[in-house]
Amino acid sequence: MAENLMVLEEAQAIVLEHVHPTPVVEVPLHLAAGLPAAADLATDIDLSPFANSAMDGYAVRACDLADASADFPVELVVIGHEAAGHVFEGAVEEGCAVRIMTGAPMPAGADAVVKYEIVELMEGDGNEGSTVRFTASAQVGDNVREAGLEARAGEAVMHAGEVLAPAGCGLLASAGITAVPVHRAPVVGVLSIGTELVAPDTVPGRGQIRDANSSALLASVVAAGGEPRFYGIAGDSEDEISNMMLAAAEECDFVISSGGASAGDYDYVTRLVRREGRVLFDRVSMRPGKAITFGLIRNTPYLGLSGNPAAACVGFEMLARPALRKMRGYAVVPRPLQYARVAHNVRKTQARRFYDRAVLSRDEGGELVVVAAKSQNSALLGTLQNANCLLMVPDGDAGFSAGDMVPCVRIDLPEGTVL
Ligand SMILES: Nc1nc2c(c(=O)[nH]1)N[C@H]1C(S)=C(S)[C@@H](COP(=O)(O)OP(=O)(O)OC[C@H]3O[C@@H](n4cnc5c(N)ncnc54)[C@H](O)[C@@H]3O)O[C@H]1N2
Ligand code: MOO
């Protein structure tokens, strides 16, 4: 390519090569959902620890009921009960049954449970001394949950890299685990570069604009599992920028700036990263987001994104998000890709790969259709706010014609979602 742009996948591989999972910390179970476990986690006891009833009813010996039917009912004597906090210590012998509640341990000798609804009470209140009648046979194991059904003592119930669902947090609680080892949130320094920028609570003067990127990037850091730290706005002066860059590189696991990344008179980022560290790439074949510098400052990864707001956000999506997720311990998997019929022609004006902000939906016939925003101007954030996908137009000169099936990156769905 004339401009010497790096193919996106190559740039992504370089970034990923230079980031590593953060140190492990422990978080309480209820805060661990959505995070990948950093180690295999084993249960200290059988789950469940004892065979128990799956129904409220009577624990019986299936062989006692082998011939039971409506015509030849079988009567058993209730010799005890099992309820929350009350365990029957005896054994169920021939002709006997024990009244039992869901979850209570199976008494010795019993091998099946018959639910209340199909048992007739002949005498008494159903507890000790009562007589109950059965009109159907029972099979060994009916309504019994075996000990260790979920896992045996010492067995891993969660594996390193597995993302915890809320149910998994409950499973770990059953296994006696109260805190989950996870890779801590990477601390991500965010800085905005540009003399024209003012804080969002300020009414901009002539030639000034509000700093929108830092809010978008701080939010993106949180969404990617990182802990953002805002360093402020640096004017277009080498000293101001390098002081902020160095402070952030010193204190953070990853640094992201926006602005000053291109070829203008005040675009210092690439030069400063080179001066203070090492530049690994500085142009990516992507629109929006071509002007992207990546390098290391004192061994801290530094990503200098374009100042144009949509370019900064798409640059984050493609390069920072995978890196932060890797640091958090997630498997490196892409956002889901889905093909849809494009409703209009897609023209290419440059050879770099396009990621057009677009909306994917189903038409009345149920077919997936994608419509790109009318303006793909990199200054616009609203089109990204409203997009649920990025329509990918490959590197090269060819666009798409209306009716083509086109690839769409689902930015509204988590990585690895099966569609
Ligand atoms: N001669 C060339 N000019 C430009 C090229 C090029 O290759 N050659 N690339 C263009 C592309 S593509 C992009 S994208 C931009 C990238 O520019 P910079 O990263 O240097 O960004 P700035 O010039 O600082 O700002 C661009 C634009 O974005 C606004 N901005 C910057 N920071 C913020 C912020 N925090 N919040 C809101 N808006 C922000 C800034 O005011 C400018 O309007 O360069 C093209 N030019
Ligand atoms: O690539 Mo710029 O990043 O087009 O807006």
From TrEMBL:
Function, in words: Catalyzes the insertion of molybdate into adenylated molybdopterin with the concomitant release of AMP.
Keyword Magnesium carried by entry: yes
Pathway: Cofactor biosynthesis; molybdopterin biosynthesis
Family: Belongs to the MoeA family.
Keywords, comma-separated and alphabetical: Magnesium, Metal-binding, Molybdenum, Molybdenum cofactor biosynthesis, Transferase
A biological-process GO annotation: Mo-molybdopterin cofactor biosynthetic process
Record bears the keyword Manganese: no
Organism of origin: Collinsella tanakaei YIT 12063
GO cellular component: cytosol
Protein name from the UniProt record: Molybdopterin molybdenumtransferase
NCBIfam families cross-referenced by the UniProt entry: Glp_gephyrin, molyb_syn
Pfam families linked to this entry: MoCF_biosynth, MoeA_C, MoeA_N
Top-level division of the source organism's lineage: Bacteria
Domain MoaB/Mog: 189-326
InterPro entries noted in UniProt: MoaB/Mog-like_dom_sf, MoaB/Mog_dom, MoeA-like, MoeA_C_domain_IV, MoeA_C_domain_IV_sf, MoeA_linker/N, MoeA_linker/N_sf
PANTHER family: GEPHYRIN (PTHR10192:SF5), MOLYBDOPTERIN BIOSYNTHESIS PROTEIN (PTHR10192)
Single GO term (MF): metal ion binding
